[in-house]
Amino acid sequence: MLLRQLEPRTARTTAEAIKFALWPLAVMTVLNRVFIKAVNGFITDDFAPVYKASKAFLNGQPVYTANFDSVDPHYLYPPSGTLMIAPLAIIDPEKSRWCFILLNAIAILIAWYLLLKLFKFTLSSIAAPVLLFAMFISETVTNTLIFTNVNGCILLAELLFIHLLLSRRDLWAGAVLGLSIAVKPTLAPLILIAAARGQWRVFYTAIGVPVALTAIAWPLSKDASKFFTHTVRYLAESRDYFNSAVVGNAAYYGLPEWMTWGVRIVFGIMVAISLWLLYRYYREDELFFITTSSGVLMTAWFLLSSLGQMYYSMMMFPLLMSVVLRNSVMRNWPAWLAVFGFMSYDKWLSDRWQGIGRNLEYLRITFGWGLLLIVIFCVLGDRYLAARRDGRLQFGIDPTWVDSAPEAPDEQGRTPLSPRLDPETAAPDGTERGEIRAEPPAGVVK
């Protein structure tokens, strides 16, 4: 009897088998990333300059003293961000770093839950362990924790913003976005989604919060003005190291300026067309519109601005999760080849083929972001041209097969029989249970 009580439950369905297999893998991966890899750290340490600046701020000393001639991580947060992160320096550096790792890990876990909830999945669904494992095995989460930066909290802000935007809680959505912008402007382009949806009150708090925090921090900082005269100038420049944006790799490989601008302009045009098609034909499909538009904006921001680093790709999780939607632009293999480029933790440096390996490692992020933008542009463009050719633009540009495509598996891992039928009440012949099926007139062959 005792052994029977200790015997682990055996899966009775394929869905249960997948969940039983993936939950241990996901949980152990989380523990490894948080308590082993992150605590061990790496030669790249994003936390050290943050702690140093926080300590200087609390002690009334100059904060913006970085020497930008070195390739070491620099302190780049504005005065408002300095005010928010200053409590980190209250305790000693090692324990403070551990707390910051734990804070980001918790933020990522909350973001994981909110991402599941966004797409109507629960913790008992197959999606829960799949998504958790995929997130923590990725380069973006792994190096965010190892390097110990604030991107986990920025991801949480993005998911909170999307949820609040969908629920029309505009002032709160703007406040969350404003808090993230006060630390770093990664999510700033997302305010365009609020503008496209006519949610103008988002702007009040999205702009007001960082302005208010800056006003509070300014008299408390010894050298707040140097952020604008010293740091912003550096941020506006493109560096040729640790920079996967187009300008970064172009500078590293010595490409002519006309070619660099040509690539940026071409991608900019594709992004503009993609966003127009999304606005024109999908803004009423709220979840698809927000998750896809946010992905396009974030990818373009990383690829076309002056600085793009691989672990920024964390902000694209909502776009990647949109694959469960029937009309998702992510339901093709080139999109996931692109995802491999900027999400995989694999290293492509080769001892045998050093030149090829170095190029693959340095360029895969840039190519991945670029390929994803190309895929989205092509998918939306093809849908538009097909709809115009068939004369159905007034009904939208979704392909005709989308209505009959299967939904994502439900919480029990089952695929609904039809988008118009409830799998709990559907009869084997395709009608609803209890529905009277009309019989053909006598003499008519069924």
List strands and helices in order, with pairings:
Layout: H1 2-6, H2 14-40, H3 47-58, H4 79-85, H5 93-118, H6 127-137, H7 139-147, H8 151-166, H9 170-183, H10 191-196, H11 201-217, H12 225-236, H13 246-253, H14 257-282, H15 286-304, H16 317-321, H17 333-343, H18 354-390
Helix pairs in contact: 2-6, 2-7, 4-11, 5-6, 5-7, 5-8, 8-9, 9-11, 14-15, 14-18, 15-18, 17-18
Describe this structure as you would to a colleague:
With 446 residues, the protein is mostly helical. It contains 18 helices and no strands. It has helices at residues 2-6, 14-40, 47-58, 79-85, 93-118, 127-137, 139-147, 151-166, 170-183, 191-196, 201-217, 225-236, 246-253, 257-282, 286-304, 317-321, 333-343, 354-390. Helix 9 packs parallel to helix 11. The protein is globular. The termini are far apart. The model is unreliable at 411-446 (pLDDT under 50).
Gross geometry: globular
Instruction: Give me the count of strands.
Output: 0
Beta percentage is under 5%
Give the overall average pLDDT: 89
Computed over alpha carbons, the radius of gyration is: 25 Å
Binned, the helix content reads 55-70%
Largest sheet: none
* Sequence stretches where pLDDT stays below 50 over 5 or more residues: 411-446
Put simply, the count of helices is 18
Order of helices and strands: HHHHHHHHHHHHHHHHHH
Structural class, please? mainly alpha
> How far do the termini sit from each other?
58 Å
